[in-house]
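User: I'm putting together a teaching handout on how sequence relates to shape, and I'd like one worked example. Could you take Polyamine aminopropyltransferase from Rossellomorea marisflavi, show the sequence you're using, and then write out its predicted structure as tokens right after it?

Assistant: Happy to. First the sequence, then the structure tokens directly below it.
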Amino acid sequence: MSVWFTEKQTKSFGITGKVRRTLESEQTDFQQLEMLETEEFGNMLLLDGMVMTSEKDEFVYHEMITHIPLFTHPSPKKVLVVGGGDGGTIREVLKHPDVESVMQVEIDGKVVEYSKKHLPTISSSYGDARAELLIGDGFEHIIKSEGVYDVILVDSTEPVGPAAGLFTKGFYAGIAKALKEDGIFVAQTDNPWFKSELIKHVMRDASEVFPITRLYTCNIPTYPSGMWTFTMGSKVYDPLDVSMENISELDTKYYTPELHHASFVLPRFVNRLLDKE
């Protein structure tokens, strides 16, 4: 008998996939964690029933949350990753030779543990000498930091449970304090089809803290609607001013120098959502 899982992305819509076997299923101190082996997307991490990453399409998210800000900043030496326990974001950060250190603060150690076990190609950089892992609250770490980081990447789940506080104006103000005078932050901000109000609120709040605020998109098939957004807040540098000559070639599968600029070209309905028209 075939076994399928369904992620209910709204009350009346979801996506479904065929499961070969369940590798892990545990209620951690913070969330329900499942690791599934699927037919179409390989091993897949779910938190509270939501797809976080899969072996087949993970590179899109991890490359786009990382390389846009790290190529926008001219010298990203110290990087903070909030969340991202699967390890994919720090893997991409460490492709940049200017990076001297990357600190990751992940609240749920079980995500790291099971990602190392079942997602080895994603979690492959945990042993790198430039990477440091702290199991703890990213919000608290941000509040305690001042003028430390060049780039902060908020690789969180959706705004429920332990991640709810990571989508507030107070958090963005804390990020601004934790960044250096020319710092940049990027956060994943869901999709414009089902979470339009969330995107509007994040852009509004971030723009009240950062003088340069941009929204950009990519395509991730296992995420709700397939169309995903990231919000960038920058104190000095505009990603649209980056010259393609200053973007070096990396070992990527999705991100390209041309896509760096193209990802900021938004569909009309998204521009209207942001009152750009």
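A couple of points you could highlight for students: The domain at 58-273 is CATH 3.40.50.150 (Rossmann fold). The chain has a mean pLDDT of 94.
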